[in-house]
Amino acid sequence: MINETFICENCEEEVDVLKGSARDHCNKCLYSKHVDIFPGDRKNNCMGLLKPIAVEKFKDTYKIVYKCEKCGEIHKNIMADDDNFEEILKLMQNPTIY
């Protein structure tokens, strides 16, 4: 698993590593990048931006639902503790039909 600092391609902010897991999205704007086949492997060739479109309940936490702006694939990633809560609240207003 690769866990590294990166510059978000959507908001251009520097994103720090996530303690205890691999960071898979920007904690500020919540965008991600379609780089993994399995979490942290960086083996996907699509490289499109994953736009956050909704939030779903998952066990005792939530997952952010993404749609790739390049290939249209839907992905889900677990919300991180330091995610921008205002952005999460905005996404919660969206229906989970995609």
The radius of gyration computed from the alpha-carbon positions, rounded to a whole number of angstroms, is: 12 Å
Tell me the structural class: mainly beta
The average pLDDT score comes to: 90
- Low-pLDDT ranges: none
Q: Per DSSP, what share of the residues sits in E-state strands of 2 or more residues?
A: 25-35%
Principal-axes geometry comes out as globular
Number of helices, counting only DSSP H or I runs of 4 residues or more: 1
Q: Give the domain tally.
A: 1
Largest sheet: 4 strands, antiparallel
End-to-end C-alpha gap = 29 Å
Order of helices and strands: EEEEEEH
How many beta strands in the DSSP annotation? 6
Strand order of the largest sheet: 3-4-5-6
- How much helix is in the residues? under 10%
What order do the helices and strands come in, and which of them pair?
Layout: E1 6-7, E2 14-15, E3 32-33, E4 49-58, E5 61-68, E6 74-78, H1 85-92
Antiparallel strand pairs: 1-2, 3-4, 4-5, 5-6
Task: Fill in the keyword field for this structure.
98 residues, 8% helix, 6 strands, 1 helix, mainly beta, globular, two-stranded antiparallel ribbon
Protein architecture, described:
The protein is mainly β. It has one domain. The chain has one helix and six strands; from the N terminus they run ββββββα. The protein has one helix spanning 85-92; strands spanning 6-7, 14-15, 32-33, 49-58, 61-68, 74-78. The longest helix is centred in the C-terminal third of the chain and has 8 residues, at 85-92. The mean pLDDT is 90.
